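Worked example 3. Consider a protein that binds 4'-deoxy-4'-aminopyridoxal-5'-phosphate.
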Amino acid sequence: MNDTANRPNSETEFARACKSIPGGVNSPARAFGAVGGTPPYIQRGDGPYLFDIDGNQYIDFIGSWGPHILGHRHPAVIRAIQLALETGTSFGAPTVAESELAELVVKLVPSVEKVRMVNSGTEATMSAIRLARGFTGRDVIIKFAGCYHGHVDSLLVQAGSGALTLGTPSSPGVPSGCTADTLVLPYNDVAALGTAFEGKGAELAAVILEPVCGNMGCVVPTEEFLQALRQTCTNNGTVLIFDEVMSGFRVALNCAQSRLGVTPDLTTLGKILGGGMPVGAYGGRADIMDAVSPVGSVYQAGTLSGNPVAMASGLATLQQLVKDDPYNKLESLAAQLEDGLLAAAKNANVPVQINRVGSMLTMFFNEQPVTDFATATASDTDRFAKWFHGMLDRGVYLPCSQYEALFVSATHTPELIDETLEAASATLATL
Ligand code: PMP
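Given these inputs, the predicted complex is written out as structure tokens:
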């Protein structure tokens, strides 16, 4: 069994990092802020495993927060990256790999007729919002409480208050002017959506949402909500944006939009699209995408966008997903995990709610069904912290927040899920 008290090398490295990096990390979620303690420093990954610099091994259910659906160091992906590296790292001029990845995205994602590559999910959503505004000539956008779309100023709006509340910045440094045109609505609330559009439809540039939410924990949209979104946006000439940075190629090869049967106007992608390298993308209807520079006048650019090494990684990842079609396997492994966790929690008399779509899953320490931000934040986060550390000490690496989804990879096996469930039973018994 791993031992949190026995990570002296990680303790030393974290203390060292805190001196030169704010909070010791380059992205806040990694710092264990919500659960306390010191994050293990990772030496390497292999398939479903992570290994830290203290010699501990973990079954990994984060997968770099989404990208590693094929597990760590998939041979085809590593080989493609190595081959690309042999020819150089960046040219700032067109390469064939960019067209190959774009064509595959167009083929796989129902809403995408044209696509532009960027370097992160944040860039993708930022650019999609700008494009929707430029295309419609309107300013106001709608987002949903609890959905995260990267650290874009206009989308970094604190969740909470109800329909039609004007956005407030959730972060110092975001001028209120940046969020004044962002309306925040509750997820899954058809009536609030209707009210927001009443009399204002002609001002609304875009509605952006995670079509399967992962960033308040996993929250599933109702059929009614999705239909209302599509219909309302169509009726008002408002651009419907699905942020599939997390759900894209995760909940289905053809993304959440195929699974849910609703086609947005624009889609943002990231994570799996780069196979572990920094890639994001936004794409959609050709008439909208052609408003982007240099065809249209909506400006967006990037020195490293379409980087050849990153394109090779993404292309190899998507090609492998097409070839292997691991989605039935992912579904059955994740169902095994869900069923086992529910049984273990019941056995331990710990009330939980599990939301799952394909290989995305969150176990909420909550007595009520979780359908939106308000119900998600009613979860017992103290209990979650104990659960998280209990699992980590037993060699299972889960996301370090109640408001995240875990991911199963194609390299997990039924035996590894059983091992995870044994750790879960032992941990739940201590809560
Ligand atoms: N959108 C969604 C749905 C995400 O989950 C994330 C990242 N977790 C982002 C956007 C931002 O992506 P990135 O961290 O690559 O900027």
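Take a moment to read the result before moving on. Residues 65, 120-122, 125, 148-150, 210, 214-215, 243, 245-246, 270, 280 surround 4'-deoxy-4'-aminopyridoxal-5'-phosphate (CB under 6 Å). The longest helix spans residues 327-347.
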